[in-house]
Amino acid sequence: MTTTLATHRARLLDGVPLTERRMTLSGLPTAVLEGGSGPPMVLLHGPGESAVNWRWIAGDLVTTHRVVAPDLPAHGSTGSDPDRLDEEGVLEWLDALVERTCGEPAVLVGHVLGGAIATRYAVGNPRRLRALVLVDSLGLGRFRPGIGFASTFARFTARPSERGYERFMNHCAHDLDALRADLGADWPAFVSYNLGLARSETASGARKLFRRVGLPRIDPGDLDRIQVPTVLIWGRHDEALKLKIAEAASERHGWPLHVVEDAADDPPRDQPGAFVRALRGALDATG
Predict the structure, then answer these.
(1) 19-64 pLDDT, tens per residue?
(2) Which helix (H) or strand (E) holds 184?
(3) Strand partners of residue 35
(4) CATH superfamily, with its number, for domain 3-286
(5) What's the whole-number mean pLDDT along residues 121-143?
(6) In the chain, what is the greatest distance between 2 CA atoms, to the nearest angstrom?
(7) Alpha carbon distance 48, 65 (integer Å)
(8) DSSP, res 127
(9) How far apart are the C-alpha atoms of 29 and 193, rounded to whole Å?
(10) pLDDT surpassing 90 at residue 3
């Protein structure tokens, strides 16, 4: 990671009660944010992002859990191995993370790409987990984003620019002006950091992981094999993974669905308070 990116990352994490450390997992240098005490909770972020995106809810979660938030392979400050950016490689990496950081079964929370990875992991590793929480997750249905989301995503991916990022974020954030106001003086660092990730040497690896692990629909038969309590939390206004995907999965598999109002594809960022209440309520219900 360049000095500039590291500076933006440090600014966005300033005041967030998580400490960054580096570890090698399945041969891959990995950046992990950790904090708090209590039962372990592992947070897997979305595509093209990093663990920094949990900054909005980390302060709440560390009061009751030991939070473990890694940068996914080829994302953020974690390295990339072109030969391991597939389901087998990322699940081996995740298993090494859980074994290294969790002394007891963990709550596994996955957002978008992180949700697809978490779901695939839960299929074969029930003893490692206490609960599975899927947030606007890939893998549960066909990926058919709205036209506005799809077009701005394609343009930004092909040629990352500040203007393109803001156009794309108009379809990712429920209220971009509110997000800008919430970040205040940190908004330029937020934009520059995410723009830097999109331009980084590992960005092609991040896209490969998205295509290979995030986009393919998970076989419903495999979803039926998940043995740990599973909960869905979804933004009402998600343009990429529409609410009907969650509703269908909830009906088929009997997974409770919590809809976060005034949120798009990232409820922890759009409505952190409502998201944490939904998450805590879901975990209380699972015992």
Answers:
(1) 999 999 999 999 999 999 999 999 999 999 999 999 999 999 999 9
(2) none
(3) 67
(4) Alpha/Beta hydrolase fold, catalytic domain (3.40.50.1820)
(5) 97
(6) 48
(7) 26
(8) G
(9) 20
(10) no
pTM: 0.98
Read off the pLDDT of each residue in 229-248 and give the average, rounded to a whole number: 98
Q: Answer whether 91's CB lies under 8 Å from 111's CB.
A: no
- Please report, for residues 55, 158, 163, the alpha-carbon distance to residue 155 in angstroms, rounded to integers and kept in the order given: 27, 5, 11
Determine contact, residues 246/238, Cβ cutoff 8 Å.
Answer: no
Contacts of 117 (CB under 8 A, 6+ apart): 44, 72, 90, 91, 94, 110, 213, 214
Residues 60, 54 contacting (CB under 8 angstroms): no
pLDDT at 2: 77
Q: What is the pLDDT of residue 137?
A: 98
Q: Residue 31 is which amino acid?
A: A
pLDDT of residue 188: 96
Joined together, the tokens standing for residue 44 give 């897997």
Q: Provide the residue type at 157 as one letter.
A: T
Going by DSSP bridges, is the β-strand pair 19-25/106-111 parallel, antiparallel, or unpaired?
unpaired
Interacting residues of 273 by C-beta distance below 8 A, sequence separation 6+? none
Q: CB-based contacts of 199: which residues, under 8 Å, 6+ apart? A: 160
pLDDT for residue 124 is more than 90: yes
